[in-house]
Specification:
The protein has 205 residues and is mainly β. It is built from one helix and 14 strands, in the order βββββββββββββαβ. The strands form four sheets. It has a seven-stranded antiparallel sheet. A three-stranded antiparallel sheet has the order 5-6-14. A two-stranded antiparallel ribbon has the order 1-4. It starts with 9 loop residues before the first strand and ends with a strand. The N terminus is likely disordered.
Length: 205
């Protein structure tokens, strides 16, 4: 598994051959370029790329976030830094590799019926994704997650985003005269879908 800041690796091999006189010289031959697919259409400003050779995919993420955690339960995960000016408790992004032979769905949906997760098919980055989402509340906080899964052959990946927030109305106004800003879920999802759209299979997808 390799984490690279540059996301395009070009390998070219040139060879030339000639024949003995009096036969005419043959033209030099160049092998086709070997390159990983570009993250398209382009990386947003301030984003960097991650390449997973073991599982055969690449994607981009905001470089201003903490360094990704590699391995373990998720092949790739990020915990985005919390902004104390907002009501965000925690937000995370993870890429899970779904085992071959298992349904190509997010592990976040384990224990729920498919219809409980508002399933929908969306097109992002030229690939078809199954989108699932679920919200809940406990101990004064609300949690919402959205997952995008796609497959190629016997490979399946799930890109999962989780957001946990608190209700500013529960704060003591004498201690917090300026309430924190409520994050807009739609704005967060728009950024996550940029990440999903950057996903590429490294064998040309």
């Amino acid at each position: 598994m390799i984490h690279r800041l540059s996301f395009v690796l070009l390998l070219s091999i040139a060879a030339s051959a000639c024949t003995a006189r009096p036969a005419p010289l043959s033209e030099p031959t160049v092998a086709p370029e070997q390159a990983t697919p570009e993250l398209a259409p382009a990386l947003p400003d301030g984003w960097t790329a991650y390449r997973d050779d073991a599982h055969g995919f690449a994607l981009a993420y905001p470089a201003s976030t903490a360094q990704p955690t590699l391995g373990g339960e998720a092949a790739f995960s990020l915990t985005l830094p919390a902004d104390p000016a907002t009501n965000v408790v925690e937000e995370t992004i993870a890429v899970h590799i779904v085992s071959a032979g298992q349904p190509c769905v997010s592990p976040l949906g384990s224990g729920f019926a498919l219809e409980e997760l508002a399933p929908a098919t969306v097109e992002l980055g030229g690939l078809s994704w199954l989108r699932q989402t679920r919200s809940g509340a406990a101990a004064g906080t609300a949690s919402t997650w959205v997952a995008y899964t796609t497959s190629r052959g016997d490979r399946c990946v799930s890109l999962d985003y989780t957001l946990r927030t608190f209700d500013p109305a529960n704060l003591d106004p004498t201690r917090f005269p300026t309430p924190p800003v409520r994050v807009e879920w739609s704005e967060r999802v728009a950024v996550i879908e940029q990440l999903v759209a950057s996903f590429r299979w490294m064998d040309g997808g």
